[in-house]
Specification:
6 helices, about 260 residues, 8-stranded antiparallel beta sheet, about 30% helix, alpha+beta
Length: about 260
């Protein structure tokens, strides 16, 4: 091939590699999300967990392959009817999964049992609210690092998100949801106030873009000196929007991560 033709091709390849090096992706993001609606509108937790396992490294995919079933629906039903109907680890006299969905503690218990059944290291659960007095930039760095490290370790993190509204001077939680994080920037500047991410939404099995940001006003806090929570700015996420009254201030919060 003539040198004058080879150089543009090499330049394009370098550009592609450079762009890819700026982001940390799930090992098998091409596998795509799992649609919770093949089973139930309240199956986001099990669907997000299965989707993360399917998009992970060989160890994660081995856990996914070990779940009984020959399609997304049958695997989801197994998680719900077998592991999901066991007693809750955090709520008395209640199963892990109900028609109201599942909480992060119980979803983590399912993830742990799936991992242990195949001899794999179980994932951890990490709360993402900032301790009192923590700077927003430090919390942002901590959350970014947790997402990136879990992706690097081969487990796309499952993220619990909640919609809050400031109603009558008090923050109220309206609704919750689970998603799978499949891309974050590889590096984050120390002075950064936000970072972008790509996530899989099990509601309809959609690939979405969003960002984690330090909110412009105190969130889940009435004290300007206490940052409270970070904001998940996800324009296409409808979680709890129908419950917000006209004129109310509302935000989505990333609350708990299940990952490595």
């Amino acid at each position: 091939m003539p040198t004058r033709l080879l150089l543009p091709i090499l330049s394009s390849l370098v550009l592609i590699v450079s762009l890819g090096a700026d982001d940390r992706w799930a090992p098998q993001a091409v596998a795509g999300p799992i649609n919770q609606l093949v089973v139930s509108g309240n199956a986001c937790g099990p669907a997000a967990l299965l989707g993360s396992l399917r998009c992970g490294d060989d160890d994660s995919r081995a856990i996914y392959a070990a779940v009984p079933g020959n399609n997304d629906r049958s695997r989801l039903l197994y998680l719900i009817r077998t592991l999901g109907l066991r007693p809750s680890v955090s709520l008395r006299d209640r199963a892990r999964w109900t028609r109201q969905g599942i909480n992060p503690e119980d979803l983590h218990a399912i993830a742990r049992e799936l991992s242990e059944s195949t001899g794999q290291q179980p994932p951890r659960m990490l709360g993402l609210h900032a301790p009192a007095g923590t700077k927003g930039t430090k919390t942002l760095q901590t959350v970014h690092r947790a997402f990136r490290d879990s992706l690097a370790d081969g487990f796309p993190p499952v993220l619990a998100i909640r919609r809050y509204v400031l109603r009558k001077g008090q923050w109220q939680m309206l609704d919750g949801h689970f998603i799978s994080i499949v891309r974050v920037p590889e590096r984050l500047d120390r002075s950064a106030t936000s970072f972008s991410l790509t996530y899989f939404d099990p509601w309809g099995a959609k690939k979405r873009e969003a960002s984690i940001e330090i909110p412009s006003r105190p969130f889940l806090s009435q004290d300007p000196a206490k940052p409270g929570a970070l904001e998940l700015r996800a324009p296409e996420a409808d979680v709890g929007k129908s419950k917000v009254r006209s004129g109310e201030f509302t935000l989505l919060a990333p609350t708990v991560m299940i990952g490595e």
